[in-house]
Amino acid sequence: MLQTELKSSLGKEFFSKLKIEPYYQPIVDLTGSAIFGYEALSRFLLDGVPMKPIRVFKMAEGLGILPELDLMCRKLAIEGFSESLKGQLFVNIFPAYLVSEYVGKGHTLAFLQQMKLSPSSVVLELNEAVKVQDMSLLQKAIKYYRDLGFGIAIDDIGTGFNSIHSLLELEGLLDYVKIPRELVDGVSKSKIKYNLIKVLSDVCASIGAKAIYEGLEKEEDLMTIYYDFNAQLVQGFYFSEPIPVQRAKEYSPSVNLPKECDGNCLHGRRLQELKLSPSERFYHFLECVEGLMERYVLLEVEDKRYFVDLWKLKSQLDSRRKNLYYYKELKEVINKERDIFLELHNLPRIRSDATDIRNLFDLVTNSKKDVFLLMEGDRVKVIERYTLLDHFSKRLAKELANVNPLTHLPGNRVIEEKIKRFSSTMDEFWVCYMDLDNFKAFNDAYGFYAGDQMIKRVGFLLESFRKENPDRVFVGHVGGDDFVVLLWNMSLGEAKEKLLKLLKNLQEKLLEFYSPEDRKRGYFVARDREDELREFPIASISAVLLRGSPDPLDISKRSAQLKKKAKSYRGSVLFVEHLNEILTINL
């Protein structure tokens, strides 16, 4: 009892001398040069003297009032955010305290309710200060708070107690993973940091968590993670230090990254550039590159630019050939050693958003080139062959794991990912859902084997249609007799024209599955769902054409409503939502 009273007395005295002010460090979304959210931090004055947060927290821990201090900081952070700021609020919380709140206290939720804030606007950021004793209880607590709408992040992964093991234990429970300053700072100059971040970025993608790269201070580091790891969310002094709420309210990020690398950067950083005249002697070029650690340099000779592989230069040019070239003009050596001096303009170009991954993978595998130009929207970057193979093999493996076993077309997961990606990168695209009318009746009348063969034929014809338009069409198999076609980089009129041609071709090919008698009559007889015999049209397809949107569920609901209307017509139909137009396809 006496100890409790002493703790209460010391705590009151400590808090009476302590002033806490919430600060906010912006988290920037590079894709839109906008504020994604803020990490809440606290600044302290003790008896009017500024104190480092870590020292204040240690003092509170020594007095046995660390939970009370943590709670007060969280409350002030939420109050300041609710009054002035928008986006996501990242609030640091010890895992043990999250568990404590889960088992009955619920202070954070109560604070939000007082400030009329939704849990969906708050991310609980688990820090690494204390080792988790009961991981199963933490998992239950995280699931509970995620069900309420909170986001969950893990801070400083790979440092302290937040090891890679934590990622394994919390797989499927994390919305964000923070890549620590210790790795991000200097990544442009450290191969070890580069490879470690690459692994962590890949792990984040595989578990469905967004990576946030902390501690950015230098432009070259920002370029590296932007170009090589497709970074979206970043945080650090390069953009802003932690600032009071009023300054945070007025803050607007300035992101001036070049949209196009123009082939003069590798792994996100500028290549060493040399400019020499064509009449320069070859030995002078050798002197310029002697001692360089980089594999590649960019050489400008008159109006041409060459990507020079210094590893090949050293390994392929023996002493005899170097002596032969020593006093020759540089242009003569370039013309004779084309596999070392690669003209930038002639490097193979690959689009990262191309849908035909298998063909691209084969193209790169069979190519004799060691470097390529990778086109990503309006960006161009030089990429090495092994990196490109790794890039495409992962995408290929992912797509193969999500294909329909009957048609080998991409399934629901890939379809949803494509729709979401198109929504974020394109102003307009079109979605066509189609299914085979009366397929169950056909199965009953002709048998399951014939039904499977019909589905396979539709899959084959859709894939052939995609191959005719590889850069503007994607096809997928939703399941059963339902299929989807995505079309982009074309007008509504062109999309209608292509789909009508496709539907007519499907109709004609599907006729082969019916008996001569049924083809002649234009219908077949089978039992309906009420077990009554009735006539069903042959080779009939219902399709709807919609304008794409970011929400696959919204598209699915709209298509379901329109397909009911389309199926009320006899024969094959294309319902165009945007025009409220019904187009029929006659045999």
Give the strand tally.
Answer: 27
Structural class: alpha/beta
The strand order across the widest sheet is 1-2-4-5-6-7-8-9
**Radius of gyration over all CA atoms, rounded:** 31 Å
Essential attributes:
587 residues; alpha/beta; eight-stranded mixed β-barrel; 23 helices; 27 strands
Write structural notes for this entry:
There is one protein chain. A hairpin with a 4-residue loop joins strand 1 (18-29) and strand 2. The protein has an eight-stranded mixed barrel with strand order 1-2-4-5-6-7-8-9, surrounded by five helices. Strands 21-22-20-25-26-27 form a six-stranded mixed beta sheet, with helices on both faces. Helix 16 runs antiparallel to helix 17 (385-400) and helix 20 packs antiparallel against helix 21 (492-510). Helix content is 44%, strand content 24%. It is of the alpha/beta class and 587 residues long. The N and C termini lie far apart (91 Å).
List the helices and strands and how they pair.
Elements lengths: L1 H16 E12 L4 E13 L2 E3 L1 H11 L2 H19 L3 E6 L1 H11 L1 H8 L7 E5 L8 H14 L2 E4 L9 H6 L6 E4 L1 H4 L6 H17 L2 E4 L5 H10 L4 E2 L8 E2 H6 L14 E2 L2 E2 L1 E5 L5 H8 L6 E6 L2 E6 H7 L2 H7 L4 H7 L4 E3 L5 E3 L5 H10 L4 E6 L2 E6 H16 L11 H14 L3 E8 L2 H8 L1 H21 L4 E7 L2 E7 L3 H19 L5 H6 L1 E5 L5 E5 L3 E7 L4 H16 L4 E5 L4 E5 L2
Parallel strand pairs: 2-4, 4-5, 5-6, 6-7, 7-8, 8-9, 13-14, 17-18, 25-26
Antiparallel strand pairs: 1-2, 1-9, 1-10, 2-3, 11-12, 14-15, 15-16, 18-19, 20-22, 20-25, 21-22, 23-24, 26-27
